[in-house]
Amino acid sequence: MTTGEMKRIVLARHIVGAPTPEDFRLETLPIPVLEDGQLLIANRYISCDPGTRSRLSPGASYAPPLQPGAMVDGFAVGEVIESRHPRFAAGDLVMGTGWATHMVSNGRGYLSKVPDLGVPLSLWNGILGVPGMTAWFGLKRVAQLRAGERVLVTSAAGPVGATAGQLAKLWGASKVVGIAGGKEKCRWLTEECGFDAALDYKAPNFEARFAEASADGWDVLFDNVGNASIDRALPVMRMKGRIVVSGQVADYNLTPAEAPGIHNTLEFIGKRLRMEGMVVFDDLPQFPAAQAELAGLIRDGLVQYREEIFDGIDSLPAAFCGLFSGASFGRRLIRL
Question: Are strands 331-335 and 307-311 parallel, antiparallel or unpaired?
Answer without folding.
Answer: parallel
